[in-house]
Amino acid sequence: MSDTVAITLNINGEDHRVSVEARRTLADTIREDCGKTGTHIGCEHGVCGSCTVIIDGEPMRSCLMFAVQADGRKIRTVEGLAKGDELHPLQRAFIDNHGLQCGFCTPGFLMLATAVLEKEPDIADGDLLDALSSNLCRCTGYQNIIKAVRQAAIEMRGPRK
Amino acid sequence: MTDHFAGAKTYPVPPTTEERTILGKRAVRLEDPPLVTGRGRYAGDINFPRQLHMRMVRSSLAHGVIKSIDVAEALKLPGVVAIWTNDDINELGPVDFRADRGAEILKPYRQPVLAKGRVRYVGDPIAAVFAEDPYVAEDAAELVEVEIDELPVVVDSWATPGEFEPGRSTEGALLKHSFGDIEAAFKKAHVIVELDLFTGRHSGVPMETRGALGYYDSAKDILELHGAAKVPHRNRETLVKMLGRAPKGLHVHESHVGGGFGIRGELYPEDVLVLVAAMRLGRPIKWIEDRREHLMCANQGREQRHKVRIAADKDGKLLGIDDEIFHDQGAYVRTHGANVANRTMCMMTGGYDIPAYRAVCHYRLTNKTPCATYRAPGRYESTFVRERLMDALADKMGIDRIELRRRNLIGKSQMPYLIEFEEQGVEELLYDSGDYELLLDKGLKAFRWDERKVEIAARRAKGEAVGLGIAIFVEESGRGPSDGAKMSVDATGDMELITGGASLGQGFETSMAQIAAEALGVDYQRITVVHGQTDRIAQGIGAHAARATVLTGGAVNETALKLRAKALEFGSELLQLPVGDLDIVNGVIVKKGAPAGGPSLSLADLAKKLTPGAKLLNGRDPHLAVEAWFNTDHTVFPYGIHFAQVRVDKQTGQTVCESFLIAYDIGRAVNPMLVEGQLVGGAVQGLGGALFEEFAYSETGEPLAVTMVDYLLPTLGEVPKIDVLITEDAPSPMNPLGIKGAGEGGINGVGGAIASAIDDAIGKPGAVVQLPVTPQRMKALLA
Amino acid sequence: MKPAAFVYHAPRTLEAALALLAEVAPQDGRILAGGQSLVPAMAFRLARPTHLVDINGVAGLDRLVLDGGVLSVGALVRHAAFHKADAKFGALGALLADVVHNIAHYPIRTRGTMCGSLAHADPASEWCLTAVTLGAEMVAHSAKGARRIAAADYFQGIMQTALEPDELLAEVRLPLLPEGAKHGFYEFNRRAGDFAIGMALVTYQVKGGKIAEARVGIGGIEGAPRRIAEAEAALNGQAPGKAAFEAAGQATAAVVDPIEDAQTPAAYRRDLAATVVTRALERAAI
What we know:
- By secondary structure, chain B is α+β, with helices and mostly antiparallel strands.
- Chain B contains 18 helices and 31 strands.
- Chain C has 3 domains: 7-54, Uridine Diphospho-n-acetylenolpyruvylglucosamine Reductase, domain 2 (2-Layer Sandwich); 64-175, Uridine Diphospho-n-acetylenolpyruvylglucosamine Reductase, domain 3 (2-Layer Sandwich); 182-285, Enolase-like, domain 1 (2-Layer Sandwich), CATH 3.30.390.50.
- In chain C, helix 9 (242-255) runs antiparallel to helix 10 (266-285).
- The chains are: A alpha+beta, B alpha+beta, C alpha+beta.
- Chains in contact: A-B, A-C, B-C.
């Protein structure tokens, strides 16, 4: 094994000090070294989006970054979405609308939608669909994912002024 | 009932959803909370201390003789523990057929666990590397040097057969299904239409790749396979045979599964290897397939060519279908034997009343990835063929497409409808119930077929190429023979329901809990459903061919009813009321019709009283726990109709599906929300196979779609709004709940309906003869 | 699909990055910016650089500024920076916002960079087409100094550019569009976010009811994007409309030398060239 580098990943507010090879992807490190297996690996070449996490507020593919590049940055994963027992509006909406079947793509969709809606609460529907077309789902046919995200978007926006 | 049902157990029409408490309702899923919070546990999430990682060395050539394998350099790499070739495991036989599929004649074509002397497709496993880290394992695999002498390849199933091995042809079998006098049918025909049709190679491609972990518990002498799916019990049977172990010494465990679709959970070489290595190397073995491997090694399907003709009389009544099929099996015969080819042939006539039929299938091996079942195996293909024939015949006879179909549908009065094949050993089909014409009428209305025709005419006048398509099909589900379940209530009132079923994301736990809750009279959310654990229940049918809901559901219903009877028996004694006066409501035994506060006994309290030694037992078994079985000899036959509207961009050749309707008779739905989910998800996969997805190969057998940039799964940008019309007009008389399966009804007719709509859009009846209809192929059609 | 091992460098200044690159380039050392093309290639082990010089921490490379009549885009400006048309950039801002939504997907655009796309030079890259059509200038830095390369000289074939191995594309300079310029972009692919099978970007002005200063660029059709002088000639001096647009499309199809792959014969791309050019022109006219 080649040389390793000591880095600190801040995941959901908690620091993880790990030592990794430079070539180790962020996705592998989040899962194997930090134990956050909710971030899934579906293709390892940036197409499927199952590994999407939020880095400093932006949704990104964690399979297309090396862990060393995330040293000191703030990462959010699906494990950090709920506040204790209280589910995030997107999590609830996915349950209510049957927005998941096998659940493998779900964390990626949740993190993608969370980042997009936090950045742009009033996002136009067309732009929302464009953003959601980033990730692949093989079970649902997408219809209920769209429903769920639209429902959560309304709730996340809160009451109108 | 006609005497077709003679000897079979039949059931009265079950209650409707309105008459039920939880069965048939849109209940939210029990599965979801862990999955939305990142607490799921898929194969890749499982780890054992001291585990080694396995990496396969795979063939880069489609066909050749292995001259040498040099592992010396790879073994020197720090962290590499062992590298195996076939020489290291030569006592292992090939991966066997599942118990009931063993066509003797196909046995020589089974896949060895590691290539034995020859490689037969790009991706064929040649060696296995075991290392401390997956990165190192991949480094080492690259260093294994394999020298191969190339042999000629067979890429097309209709080309002249080649040599599988010296003296053995690549035509593995010549299969046949037939009934009636086909020669006479064509002799007296008023019209004959011939087509040469091709369904492209595609597959399930679940979002989770395959994964397997082998763990050997030396204290108990139990070998465990984790990461299994679909048919854990059947796979265990095969593994026990292959590894020569006693059944008690091998268990298979299903965790969360990231999609199945028929291809995940079959037994593959890697599953066998992790077990053998776990024992021999004395360390747990983890194997996670990467996506490139998945796209060249996991089961593919669908690739068939049909040279087919149909005969009709002067009124358009069908006289016969005569089909010559070239079935591309790929490099080896995997666990299903000839199942897909057989399902293609036996379901070809679909919902039409056809007096004569003959299908001859050249079941051929090629130098491409092996094939097996993918969602609606043989039916996506046969529906495409049959419905293409109907469109072509309608056009040739100048009869409206709908009218021609209507004239030939099997009538409600003809149910149950028996199809018997002449060939020995070919199972008959007994369509249990159905009103096909009623569904056609309802579907046409829901899709606004006539109104759409008007709208389309207006758009065509403005130069657009828009069209409508239809495909009618019959599905099959719930094939027997039997399944069992166990259920118990604990002292807190929580329940455990142990099944031999499997969950691949379809909502199995929720469905089973709903069935049990309805039968017993409890809250479905308090039921924990166990599945896919061979150490919890001795037998299980798993989840395949849309069996789970019908067969395991039947077992769960019987079990919950038996538990109810036991609870009421003791409740009657304790409450001093006759059983007939009692009911169970929300987990409490109460007197029927009594106001709140009347005599009652909770199941939790009853469970507490039924401990071993309790006087109350009076010789009867302790615990509020039972086990029961559901037996059936018969398959049930749901049916459906797909309607599509497409627009073709004549400049680019791109086809866009604008809207889609699935009309489907489910008999009785356990949970309409889940049924819709299955149907819509299936339809989008079908759309993939009709327009986007294709495992193409070069002339030398090199796979051209080994990335997700090249294998085009639909994104939400390509998917129209899909409407669903679920009807319950024909509950199955073959099970007490009247249910039929839903897993394959969304995908079955998509290829047929899209082809039909494209023909209509471009005004060239019969133009589409090949799936998928890519823009490049469309341009050729328009040229 | 785990990348092969490499030595990782994370310089903080441009000078340090260029010094490192000079040192490691002869051993197949490469720049890592957004990594959205390089890392997948490494996952398949199609690319296996021995050294990576990660410039994400280099100060000053994220500059996105107006410099006279030119938009200067630094090497760390992500695609997503162009999601919303910036009024300061006038018609160019609107053009870039139109184009950017066709580049892969949202989470790729938050990480990938414009300069990275230009350095990678995929024939189907939207930014490469943009640079060629608008006549951008590439600013390449190396330890030996900086030089400017015109887009027309920069793209040399499929994934081939005028960049030397020890050069870092530190900046691309896009000229602003003249007041009142029209633009149109049309891309054809099979799925949302896929690489273009063919695309066109056009700009022109209307003077006295006639098209003037037409620029017609095509991408995905040939090994590298380029402007089609014949199409531009077919437009200039003509009234904007169906006849001129179709003539420009036909002129394009007549002169292209299309690439071919297993799924797509050259004839298909030739035909497509006409379609994308005509449709880009139609969009510009709206």
